[in-house]
Amino acid sequence: MATFTNQAVLSYNGITTSSNVATGEIVEVLSASKDVLSSEYGTGDTVAYVINIVNSGNTPFTALTVTDDLGAYTYQPDTGAERTLYPLTYVDGSIRCYQNGVEQAAPAVTQTGGIRISGIGVPAGGGTTLVYQARTNEFADPQINGEITNTAVVGGAEVATPITVTETIAARRAPYLTILKSISPRQVAENGQVTYTFDIQNLSNTAATEEDNVQITDTFEPILSGIRVTYNGAALSDTNYTYNETTGEFSTNAGALTVPAASFTRNPATGAWNGIPGGAVLTVTGII
User: Fold this and answer.
1) How is 105-146 classified by DSSP, letter by letter?
2) Which of 204, 69, 202, 71 lies closest to 139 in space, CA to CA?
3) pTM of the predicted structure, to 2 decimals
4) Does residue 277 have a cis bond before it (omega within 30 degrees)?
5) Is the pLDDT of residue 47 over 60?
6) pLDDT per position as a tens digit, 84-115
7) Domains located in the chain, CATH noted
8) How many CA atoms lie less than 13 Å away from 35 in the CB half-sphere?
9) Are strands 193-202 and 108-112 parallel, antiparallel or unpaired?
């Protein structure tokens, strides 16, 4: 609660006298909170933030501003001065504004490293909600202990004491797998041999283990006969997969495949992170 003081001076017939010091308090009627709609992030993910501003007073606010630092932090490169890095990039045009649940015209957003949202009104006895999106970029720490702490400040000429709200989101701590299938050769003679290759990549800081029940299923058309299966260059035991030569249905057993975590390096000059996916390769070779 902010306090203020005031003292008057009385003058008459060349005489001056001062009054007592009157002290008052400004009752703060504005409050704010900030939330994020996802609990974890990965590189290139879009994250939605929500700021709620509540006015418990009898007078509306008409010209508030909100600044958001987009997770700014300092980084010391291998040479030169410290620099400020921003692990989030505002998604242009994503801002939405609601007063008492009713959508309003979008406020102006200025990008200055972070962002500044201006011209925000909050009705008396009501609330305003701002929703906007930001995308993680190469300065977001992808490691298993990585996190982004995002700070916003609600202020303006009508606010006695600016309100600071923060939200922290952690780097994803679970496998994030992709799969690419290829065939060799592309042109196969009748009764010829063909190899299907399944390239699995893990973009996350966490390995996929047996407990994650990684499984590949496929139906080969044309049906293959006499198949041979390898995993990371070694023969995969037929106890780790099933194949039906009548239907062409193939499946590895849940948990038979594991995929290592990605590895990450950082550019010492710029502070940008670079990820090298963890990988595993399954091949199935047979006669068409």
Assistant:
1) PPPEEEEESEEEEEEEEE-TT-EEEEEEEEEE-TTS--STT-
2) 71
3) 0.82
4) no
5) yes
6) 999 999 999 999 999 999 999 999 999 988 99
7) 32-171 (2.60.40.740), 177-287 (2.60.40)
8) 8
9) unpaired
